[in-house]
Amino acid sequence: MTDRPAMPTRFRSWLFAPGDSERKMTKAAGGDADIVIFDIEDAVAEDAKPAAREGIRSFLLACSEEERLRLWVRVNPLDGPHTANDLAAILPGRPGGIMLPKSRGREDVEELDRLLTPLEMELGIEPGSTAVIALVTEVAAAMFTTGDYAGAPRLCAMTWGAEDLADSIGALSNRGEDGEYSFTYELARSLTLLGAAAASVPAIETIDGDFRNLDGLKKRCEKVRRDGYRGMLAIHPAQVPIINAAFTPSEEEIAEAREIVALFAANPGAGTIGHGGKMLDRPHLSRAQQLLAQIED
């Protein structure tokens, strides 16, 4: 069994599209998002979920194998009645991956793996090859388990949610008077970043609901990228170009990273190297290598 499916080289932008709208799924799939997530959870009303499942499966089956690699599905959370039905309906369409919402910890990813494996075997899909991204802060108790995901089967990325977390806590708002996330939600962002690093998977920033404020989106993308995030969720196609540009290394960053890698390659025994008026050590080399890995095909 494959415990860690291959992550797409590009995973900057993750665009949601409601699974009960063929028009919106078509528009999202035809756009520039690195990954499109057809949603059966929050975007679909309770009585519309069966039809959404069938619509997503039909949509996926009409796509080529290459196209399906970037078409993922957000199923319903494991503590509800829908997850097994979601998976049984959509897995014959061979989506590129599954988003698991309201994950309470590593055990939820393991449970999802147990549900997926027999379906894959029945359908002739390589067991373990369907990737998973987990939403890890949407319920209060999950805040205490963000560091437990290392080695979780299928896990390819981790992201977080502020809206459901506010609901779980009973907060009136997740924002302060300045419009920025208040402490609890900045903590959720930080714990997700640390948890993803501990699990050796990319951290993906949560949505920005104000899809008309593209200048604000750009600033936020740049901030979280500096912090270590590798991509961001999107709720509107207009957000995708901003996210893609912000999470794409610049030519200057690439050139500097290549120079750092070359310096250490030319001095394999050196622990530190003077360069450009600075002292570079092995963490600088590691960061340069990680940046270059983002542009490899």
UniProtKB/TrEMBL annotation:
- Co-factor(s): Mg(2+)
Q: Where is the HpcH/HpaI aldolase/citrate lyase domain?
A: 12-237
| Pfam families membership | HpcH_HpaI (PF03328)
* Gene Ontology terms for molecular function: lyase activity
Its keywords, alphabetically, are: Lyase, Magnesium, Metal-binding
Source superkingdom: Bacteria
Keyword check for Magnesium, yes or no: yes
Report whether Metal-binding shows up as a keyword of the record. yes
Protein family: Belongs to the HpcH/HpaI aldolase family.
PANTHER family from the entry? HPCH_HPAI ALDOLASE_CITRATE LYASE DOMAIN-CONTAINING PROTEIN, LYASE BETA SUBUNIT, PUTATIVE (AFU_ORTHOLOGUE AFUA_4G13030)-RELATED
| Name the UniProt record assigns to this protein | CoA ester lyase
Which organism is the protein's source? Qipengyuania psychrotolerans
